[in-house]
Fold this protein.
Amino acid sequence: MPKRHVIVGGGTGGLNAILTIREHERDASEITLVSAERPYSRMVLPYYLGRSIAESHVFTLTPPRLAQLQIRSHIGRRAAKLEASTNRLTLDDGTALEYDDLLIATGSSAVKAAVPGADSPGVHSFWTLEQARSVVTQVHERSHVVMVGAGFIGFTILDAVLTLKARLTVVEIAPQILPRMIDRAGAEMVAQWLTRHGVAIRTGVTLTAIEDADGRKRLRFREQEDLVADVVIMATGIRTNLEWLKGTGMRVNRGIVVDDHLRSSIPNIYAAGDVAEGNDLVTGQPAVHAIEPTAMEHGRVAGANMAGLDVAYRGSLLMNIVEVCHLDIASFGAWDDPTAEAFAVLKPERWAYRKLLWRADRLVGAMLLGKANDIWTTNDVGMLKGLVQSGGRLGAWKEHLRRNPFDLKPAFIASGATARLLPETILGRPAVPAEQVH
């Protein structure tokens, strides 16, 4: 009898698990996909908002692709009940699925600020395709868009809003923008850059209500005067989709607790992406990294193990990279560790800032800001990530980087990070067959 795999979630984690199972399985298996939405890439939704791609280009596992991969699918359905003792999953329409192993990759949902009027028409989240469709129909040239929340999620769509020639105001309750991605000095530089590009910014303000105002929306604040907007976009956070697992006996903390094979406390149930709490590559502590690269890696590792391989995962690297108005902003690893030794350099004349964080001679975190067309930026983003991700000891190169933090290349080459990171993929095989390397 073929092995029965059930994948719950059609996002990045689920997609990569399916592809990896099909690539590595020894015998043909049955794969069943359960997905509340038609599978699509959330990462391209900002391009859809900016009208640079059509909606048809956001979809990943299209019906022809599902048929090619021989996937049974339940699209538009949600997992409702898990009976781990009998290996049975029940969907919200009563369909019962039996499995030999199960992957939970149900992702996250947007959370709006808990204020009166947050759920009224004209107040949008931008997390799902359905939510994106609503925003696309309402943002136009000269419309005033107020974005509530100045974190990574909001910043991914900032350029798209400006591309449509809308007027944009960003409000944030924290004393700085991007409070979970960069430090105060970096945030001040980004705020200055955005102001030069016509974005109004309010930080340290508390939204108290959203009211109707003659077909528009009035936002009231505790500390400052009201704002009147044509469109309000809430970018105030996400929460993992785990409610349906209550009572299953599975160990859940901030996410489903997984081991280095992405297995949950129930051995034939795996978790990937936003719902999984696994090892942080830098700190060694359990963490939920609700980011695209982690979902991809989780899906591949879980899929490989479901296919019968024995693949251990070192852990995920916290990282965020976003471009706004041609300014690149990036942070990696323990960028906000208050106990780490830190070197920081600001070059305002080049709109460049970087900060390196150390434990002894290991680079454990980094921040980088710079113009997208600046050679310092384009060359160094990947090298900084590689130095943090490889975790190697840098010895005397630490002092070199203290004196010359914009001269990364010699330290990167000498560190051996390239040799450790390039030859293998996450599944532990050559990224390129040896005979093709010249």
User: Anything to note?
Assistant: The two ends are 45 Å apart (CA to CA). The chain has a mean pLDDT of 94.
